[in-house]
């Protein structure tokens, strides 16, 4: 995989994670119930990730951008909305946490790819 | 159903190169490697705008097929630049206009995410393939792994409105249509695969 793709994957996930983190921190506050905040954050994160990764996929490839970005949207939206519903969370801090979630999701996807790619035993597929 | 698919891909033909260029760059090495095994008389579907034409080894006799006239129109210049025989044909994969056992190799590329009845389409490919021929597919499929399975299932109701389904079990469809699997290689996660099968 070329350096440009790796750099693009990292920039895209960090930026999108930060965006979702900031959005979640500004949308939710301790007056919200934790469960609805988590659900709304998760669904909105995945929906926005679909749009983001469709655009970014022009340069990075559709699947390679959709999978980590949607995971970032799901996890960052869910976790940071939950935190914001429990305690007051500054937008900047939300963005930092979101970027960290984006990084973790990308690394998880890379690790899964390393495990899953390659020739498969035929009895284990289909 | 075929006319709906034709209309969708005709509409998509003007922006297809733009939205596919990242994926094509990412997958170029794997596609070139897979296509280096192609031999004899070849049926290639769906040829699209011909982005993969340069990935084929030179000197083959290739029929590039697509359901969309818009795609075929854009593929003309790339087909003309191929160092070998490359003709283009409009056809629906479920009703191929070729005789039984015509081709040595059938190649597909991101095709069976969009074919309305994938098993019927694959049975047609089996019909036109010679007894010792080979089916060589580069396809994206559903995933067996959480959380990717969840995300692909969530995306499919949206993506099927403009073309592809993201959660098909194409390996199972290949087996169900009567092919015998020779190899399955995951290119990205367990989603993007090279599937090789024979009769």
Q: Mind explaining what this structure looks like?
A:
The complex is a heterodimer of chains A (126) and B (199). With 126 residues, chain A is mainly α. The radius of gyration of chain A is 16 Å and the shape is elongated. In chain A, helix 3 packs across helix 4 (91-116). Chain A is built from 4 helices and 1 strand; from the N terminus they run ααααβ. Chain A starts with a helix and ends in a 7-residue tail after the last strand. Chain A has one domain. The mean pLDDT of chain A is 94. With 199 residues, chain B is an alpha/beta fold. Chain B has a single domain (2-198), classed as 3-Layer(aba) Sandwich (Rossmann fold). Helix content of chain B is 37%, strand content 26%. Chain B has 6 helices and 7 strands; from the N terminus they run ααββαββαβααββ. Chain B has helices at residues 2-12, 16-35, 69-80, 118-128, 148-159, 170-176; strands at 41-45, 61-66, 85-90, 103-109, 129-140, 180-188, 192-198. Chain B has a 7-stranded mixed beta sheet with strand order 3-2-1-4-5-7-6, sandwiched between helices. Chain B is globular, with a radius of gyration of 16 Å. Chains A and B meet through helix 2, helix 3, helix 4 and strand 1 of A and helix 2, helix 5, helix 6 and strand 6 of B.
């Amino acid at each position: 995989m070329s350096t440009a793709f790796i750099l693009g994957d990292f920039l895209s996930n960090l930026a999108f994670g930060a965006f979702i983190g900031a959005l979640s921190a500004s949308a939710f506050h301790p007056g919200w119930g934790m469960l609805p905040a988590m659900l709304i954050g998760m669904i909105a994160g995945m929906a926005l990730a679909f749009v983001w990764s469709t655009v970014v996929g022009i340069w990075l490839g559709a699947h390679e951008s959709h999978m980590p970005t949607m995971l970032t949207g799901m996890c960052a939206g869910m976790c940071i909305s939950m935190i914001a519903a429990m305690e007051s969370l500054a937008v900047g801090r939300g963005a930092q946490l979101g970027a960290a979630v984006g990084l973790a999701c990308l690394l998880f996807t890379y690790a899964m790819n390393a495990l899953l790619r390659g020739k498969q035993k035929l009895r284990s597929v289909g | 159903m075929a006319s709906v698919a034709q209309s969708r891909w005709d509409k998509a033909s003007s922006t297809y190169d733009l939205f596919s260029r990242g994926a094509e760059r990412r997958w170029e090495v794997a596609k070139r490697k897979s296509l280096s095994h192609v031999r004899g008389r070849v049926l290639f579907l769906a040829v699209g705008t011909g982005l993969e034409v340069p990935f084929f080894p030179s000197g083959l006799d290739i029929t590039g097929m697509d359901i969309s006239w818009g795609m075929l129109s854009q593929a003309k210049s790339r087909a003309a630049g191929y160092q070998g025989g490359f003709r283009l044909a409009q056809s629906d994969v479920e009703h191929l206009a070729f005789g039984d056992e015509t081709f040595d190799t059938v190649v597909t590329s991101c095709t069976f995410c969009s074919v309305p009845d994938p098993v019927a389409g694959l049975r047609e490919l089996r019909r036109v393939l010679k007894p010792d021929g080979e089916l060589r597919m580069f396809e994206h499929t559903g995933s067996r792994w959480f959380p990717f399975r969840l995300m692909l299932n969530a995306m499919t109701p949206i993506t099927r409105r403009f073309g592809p389904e993201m959660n098909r079990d194409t390996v199972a469809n290949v087996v169900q249509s009567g092919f015998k699997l020779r190899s399955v290689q995951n290119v990205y996660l367990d989603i993007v695969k090279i599937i090789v099968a024979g009769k």
